[in-house]
Design goal:
The complex is a heterodimer of chains A (about 425) and B (about 425). With about 425 residues, chain A is of the alpha+beta class. Chain A folds into two domains: about 200 residues, Cytochrome Bc1 Complex, Chain A, domain 1 (2-Layer Sandwich), CATH 3.30.830.10; about 190 residues, Metalloenzyme, LuxS/M16 peptidase-like (Cytochrome Bc1 Complex, Chain A, domain 1, 2-Layer Sandwich), CATH 3.30.830.10. Chain A is about 40% helix and about 20% strand. A six-stranded mixed sheet of chain A has the order 1-2-6-3-5-4, with helices on both faces. In chain A, helix 1 crosses helix 7 and helix 10 packs antiparallel against helix 11. The longest helix of chain A is centred in the N-terminal third of the chain and has 19 residues. Chain A is globular and about 60 Å long. Chain B has a six-stranded mixed sheet with strand order 1-2-6-3-5-4, sandwiched between helices. Chain B has a five-stranded mixed sheet with strand order 7-11-8-10-9, with helices on both faces. The chains are: A alpha+beta (about 425), B alpha+beta (about 425). The interface between A and B is large, with 73 and 74 residues.
Chain lengths: ~425, ~425
């Protein structure tokens, strides 16, 4: 497999290139180091809203022009705002990639933020939040974040609080854009059917002329240490109860993160390759008919975040009994560790997951962009190797260090009858 | 043949064989990857179940993975998960499909497990009851999902109770509660067999080796008294006019689902209908509907249309999520775009844009094993011919503006759309 080449333009733009000639396709990404993590109170959701405004056009590429040109070429394009980053991508037939490269260079500096379009987009974004609110689990996630993070920007949802979405102005958005969209705060990534030398020359031509500026001071506040277990209960109309148990997890670049990833593969089976029916939590919670499903998430983040386990309860079973079983499994893990058989299964699943994820140039480019955001451009390329290096003893160590009650946040979504819902007059 | 054409799956590079028992096997070698994908189907969809047992076909599909004559639940899943492989069954209207993936070195294990769960499920009572509970939980949760409720209300308005499309693939709480193990076994015995089965393998495997493997594993499968393959016509009664309003407590947004009977995938005018749909609610930022409802009026985060295709008269649908106060305006805006599409020729630019979009997106659809397998399975399942993709550009290029207008007029009607809204109470409901 061809390796990633890493370059930095004089204006500070990071460039990551990886040739892949399996299909005549190129995926082109621009990743900016700004996300909901960097938003102060009153401006929550601003990174995501700016992402929406980036699709409203520039003088060179008016609104609708890129939609048309990229669709005409049979391409895909989209953007994602996460806690840590805002990423834009276009995947196109290789001979059509030029327009994507030109357009991303242009909108790094020339997005217009027309006041009328800003207002029109305000209602679209509020609609997006209200659509998410229709899912009862959204309220549980929002409550858990708020409980787990009092100070750090991870405390609010990426979409933002509705009160901020109603009060932020066009100038707030434009200021956020001007402050964070610059070469020194970004990376350009290409994966696909190209020649690295030619591609780099084209990037230098299109992006090298963008003026240099120093990297922005990113708003970020450190979360103080948690001093005891926290618990929340959310009540929503419905019939289904959920339990979510979260533990504080290290940053993705911390040496313990990959050990926790193996722990997670054994505990919940979240390998990304196959199903999870042999995992400990499936066997303990679903097979015993306490839960209808169980899943877990260890998200790779810049700052310490959470390892979260979500249990969907069956009718007639309670969050309390699910919690007792779940915590019992965690205590068993902390006492006895994992077997070599479980470790080998996690390793094989990782190898398979890596193979599946490298079939698509879009997915490869995504992970390179994410590696840049995490501050280690080799993070993805070394992923499988680092995972293979984790031992059973490592897993036992991190289980004992991280899965402790003092660092736990427990949330319950309690279904209620519709008429029980109380709203202030 | 150009270099680009040579990279497209076609009759010259797809190995196709029909086994004596009626299974059609298609293999495409993709040396650029380390993995293999399976995609398969048998005639075991929901159209073969009785209305009072709606959800049975999907239940059989799900329960197939819970135990066989040779492997118990843990052995099935342990075998797959030990090697990072996946195998999933899914029930659809006409067929039950199964798809799987594994590292190329583990293809024989994947095929062996797939054959076992397809041919020899025993439906252990303990696991059937567990699966029943999981499905009931999902159905209960869905009652509070506004998208699900709107789509269900639209579907039930469009298809009367005596039509098989009236019912959802997952059934309802009453029907799922009443299904017995004997029902699962009987349905499996009746519907699962080699006749008409399609099996596609794509990935880092030589065609000859894959064909030999399938022949060795599935070649001795026989079925007594297979059921007759069923066709489904459009309902004779028209859509129930007027809005279906579904109150779902505790919600802040309303979901709109609109639909009308669309073309089958095999209809001659399906490609023209697909192009017309793209103009209506797909191309660019969700076509004309997206431009009107989202971009110009700022009413919705999502608003798009989709022409279903499939083996029967699938609905042609429009979906949008809006603030309750904007429901009426969004519906009127969508109906206005449907009216426009059925009364005016699309512009030359619209046609050219969408033709280019349809032909240009092919390389991305063929980027992964799964994408290639899906295309090959469709070519075989809908009898499009194995050179369908090779001729695709030319076929799309022949479609005219008049063809789009004719397809839109044949299927769409602003007056006859079934309209359902699910959400909080508001003046429009």
């Amino acid at each position: 497999m061809l390796q990633v080449t890493h370059h930095t333009l004089p204006n500070g733009l990071t460039v990551l290139l990886k040739e892949a000639h399996s299909a005549p396709v190129i995926s082109w990404w621009l990743a900016y180091r700004v996300g909901s993590r960097n938003e102060p109170t009153g401006k929550t959701g601003i990174s995501h809203w700016v992402e929406h405004m980036m699709f409203k056009g520039t003088e060179q590429f008016p609104a609708g022009m890129l939609d048309r040109e990229i669709d005409r070429a049979g391409g895909q394009w989209n953007a994602f705002t996460s806690m840590d980053a805002t990423k834009y991508f276009e995947t196109l037939p290789a001979d059509k990639i030029a327009i994507a490269m030109q357009a991303e260079a242009d909108r790094m500096v020339n997005a217009q933020f027309n006041p009328d379009e800003t207002e029109s987009e305000r209602t679209v974004i509020i609609s997006e939040r209200q659509g998410a609110e229709n899912q009862p689990t959204f309220w549980l996630q929002e409550g858990l974040r708020g409980s787990a993070f009092r100070v750090h920007g991870y405390h609010h949802e990426i979409i933002g609080d509705e009160t901020d979405l109603r009060t932020m102005t066009r100038d707030d958005l434009y200021e956020h854009y001007r402050a964070h969209y610059c070469p020194a705060n970004a990376a350009a990534i290409a994966v696909g059917a190209f020649d690295t030398e030619d591609m780099l020359a084209e990037i230098e031509r299109l992006y090298g002329t963008i003026p240099a500026s120093s990297a922005p001071d990113l708003f970020a506040r450190q979360e103080p240490a948690q001093t005891g277990e926290r618990r929340i209960v959310v009540e929503r109309p419905g019939k289904t109860a959920f339990l979510e148990v979260c533990y504080r997890a290290p940053a993705a670049t911390h040496e313990d993160w990959m050990k926790l990833k193996v722990l997670d593969a054994v505990l919940s089976g979240s390998s990304g390759a196959s199903d999870n029916k042999t995992s400990r939590l499936y066997q303990a919670l679903v097979k015993t008919e306490i839960a209808a499903g169980v899943g877990a998430w260890l998200t790779p983040t810049i700052d310490p975040y959470l390892y979260s386990i979500l249990v969907t309860l069956r009718e007639g079973r309670t969050p309390a009994e699910a919690e007792a079983v779940l915590l019992g499994e965690i205590e068993r893990l902390k006492a006895d560790g994992i077997s070599e058989e479980e470790l080998n299964r996690a390793r094989k699943q990782s190898k398979a997951a890596f193979a599946y994820s490298t079939e698509s140039v879009t997915e490869q480019a995504y992970w390179l962009a994410q590696s840049f955001i995490l501050g280690d451009v080799n993070w993805f390329d070394n992923y499988a190797e680092r995972l293979m290096g984790v031992t059973a003893a490592d897993v036992l160590d991190v289980a004992r260090a991280y899965l402790v009650s003092r660092q736990r946040v427990v949330g319950v979504l309690q279904p209620i009858e519709a008429e029980e819902e109380q709203t202030p007059a | 043949m150009s270099k680009r054409q040579a990279s497209i799956p076609h009759s010259g590079n797809i190995e196709r064989a029909e086994l004596e028992n009626g299974i059609t096997v298609l293999v495409y070698t993709n040396p650029a990857v380390q993995s293999v994908n399976l995609m398969s189907s048998v005639h075991g969809g929901s159209i073969y179940e009785a209305p009072e047992q709606s959800g049975l076909a999907s239940f059989v599909a799900g329960a197939s993975m819970t135990g066989t004559a040779n492997r118990d639940f843990d052995a099935i899943h342990g075998t797959l998960e030990d090697i990072g492989a996946a195998l999933n069954f899914s029930g659809h209207k006409h067929k039950v499909g199964f798809s799987g993936k594994a590292l190329a070195e583990d293809l024989s294990t994947l095929v062996d497990v797939a054959s076992d769960v397809l041919r020899n499920p025993v439906f252990p009572t303990e696991h059937v009851e567990r699966l029943r509970g999981e499905r009931l939980t999902w159905l209960q949760y869905s009652q509070f999902d506004t998208r699900y409720r709107a789509a269900k209300a639209m579907r039930e308005a469009l298809f009367p109770e005596d039509h098989p499309y009236h019912y959802g693939a997952y059934g309802c709480e009453e029907s799922i509660a009443g299904i017995k193990v004997e029902d699962l076994k009987a349905f499996h015995s009746r519907q699962y067999g080699p006749a008409g089965m399609i099996l596609v393998i794509v990935g880092a495997v030589k065609a000859g080796e894959a064909l030999a493997l399938v022949s060795d594993t599935f070649g001795d499968w026989r079925q007594e008294n297979p059921s007759v393959v069923r066709c489904v016509d459009a309902p004779t009664a028209g859509a129930e006019r007027g809005r279906q309003a579904v109150f779902v407590p505790g919600k802040t947004q309303s979901d709109i689902s609109m639909g009308i009977i669309g073309p089958a995938r095999t209809a001659d005018d399906f490609p023209a209908a697909q192009l017309a749909n793209s103009v209506l609610g797909e191309f660019g930022m969700m076509g004309r509907i997206g431009k009107s409802v989202r971009e110009e009026k700022g009413l919705a985060y999502y608003a798009y249309s989709r022409v279903g295709g499939g083996h029967g008269p699938e609905p042609w649908t429009v979906n949008a999520g809006v603030n309750p106060e904007n429901v009426d305006l969004a519906i009127e805006s969508i109906l206005a775009e449907i009216e426009r599409l059925t009364t005016e020729l699309v512009t030359e630019d619209d046609l050219a844009d969408n033709q280019s979009y349809f032909t240009g997106r092919m390389p991305l659809r063929l980027e992964s094993n799964e994408g290639i397998a899906s295309q090959i399975h469709s070519m075989e399942s809908y009898r499009l011919g194995l050179d369908y993709l090779l001729n695709y550009e030319e076929m799309i290029g022949r479609i005219t503006r008049e063809d789009l207008l004719a397809a839109a007029r044949t299927y769409l009607s602003a007056e006859d759309m079934a309209v359902a809204v699910a959400g909080p109470e508001h003046p429009g409901l």
